[in-house]
Amino acid sequence: METLMKPAEYAKELGISRQAVYAKIKKGILTAKEVEGKLYIVVDTAAKAQTAPPASPSAPQNRPVAPSSSKSSVLPEEYRKLLAAKEETIAVLRETVDDLKESNRQISTTLKGEIDLLKSAFSEMRSLYLHRIEELKAEEHACEGEDLLEADLKGQEEEERLREWISAKRFLKQQHSIREKERAKLLKRLKKAYKRGDARLCEIDGKLKIDVSQAYGDLLE
User: Fold this and answer.
1) Which end of the chain has the lower number of beta carbons within 10 A, N or C?
2) How do residues 128-178 score in pLDDT, each as one tens digit?
3) pLDDT for 46 beyond 70
4) How many CB atoms lie within 10 A of CB 89?
5) Per-residue pLDDT tens for 99-137?
6) Separation of CA 186 from chain center
7) pLDDT value at position 163?
């Protein structure tokens, strides 16, 4: 007759660990089956009863047992099974320790690889930032160069603009139709026009200047 036992119950009855029971199942020493999604050990109760030591109710309980003098005495079947189960438990534990060592080694290798990857990514990002900083510096220098060029162009334009202004005396000298005696009168007239706010006239470095691009017929008549 067969009965079903949970792995924990079977291990407790034999005095072994559950790892040893699962190892026996894996090796085919024990028969197991799933019932409603749970794993059970198939135990043959008839074979178990045959291997169990016979009970002797009529034997006296406190009767001393004479020690055996034979060196080739064999341990009872249950003791041998218990020792075998203990050895299997030790073997399972050793395998577990080896698996843990291997897992730790794999974890260490993985972590080292991740650290190396982070270092590489950090180095790459640092290189990109340094390159970008150099680009910004170059752009800043270029902007400064453009500002200097623009200032230089403005200075040249200002010089060109100033070149259109000549002194009033020179202007009068260029007017060949005007006599020298009349030039003094016209110079005074030009100064008065400047004081009145005539935009055609200006004062640069304390000297009266005239915009030659303008007409001065009204002042020279």
Assistant:
1) C
2) 889 889 889 888 888 887 888 888 787 777 665 555 788 888 888 887 777
3) no
4) 19
5) 888 888 889 888 988 898 899 898 888 888 898 898 898
6) 83
7) 55
Residue length, the chain? 221
CB 1 within 8 A of CB 41: no
With CA atoms as reference, report the closest residue to 95 among 147, 34, 27, 182.
27
214 to 3, 166, 192: CA distances (angstroms): 127, 12, 17
Give the N- to C-terminal CA distance of the chain in Å, as an integer. 147
Looking up tokens 């009855």, which residue turns up? Answer: 13
Give the pair of three-digit tokens for residue 15: 């005095």
Which of 2-16, 18-32, 73-87, 180-194 has the weakest average pLDDT? 73-87
